[in-house]
Amino acid sequence: MSVEPKYLYLTTIGRRSGRSRRIEIWFTRHERAYYLVAEHGRRARWVQNLIVDPAVRARVGARSFRARARVVDRAAERELVRSVRRRSEAKYGWGDGLVVELRPVRRAAPLTPSSRPRSARRRRGARRPPR
Hints:
Layout: E1 7-13, E2 20-26, E3 28-30, E4 33-38, H1 45-52, E5 55-60, E6 63-71, H2 78-92, E7 98-104
Antiparallel strand pairs: 1-2, 1-5, 3-4, 4-7, 5-6, 6-7
């Protein structure tokens, strides 16, 4: 039986700087999503970043993945918020704050040479540009 890691490493893109920003944060899992609880709600900079750009990266243990982030609507999704808070309280002894969902996204299949646009295919014998 494996023990679930304690932390999730979340990388957002800075809403002002455009630079990658990484935080270490507690998380819980429910169904096929990861849930984070923002102690400072919408004032947390990482929350402000993912509201502007919901495409994020995350790492849990050895697993890294891309995800779509969203703030869970407390009024419309009361049962989900309650469930996430209960899970967080059971795992960490704390669960009060704004609930954020990370839903992993599947990567697109890599392009094969025949599926690349003709203009992107390298001609036989064509020289590669120097690095």
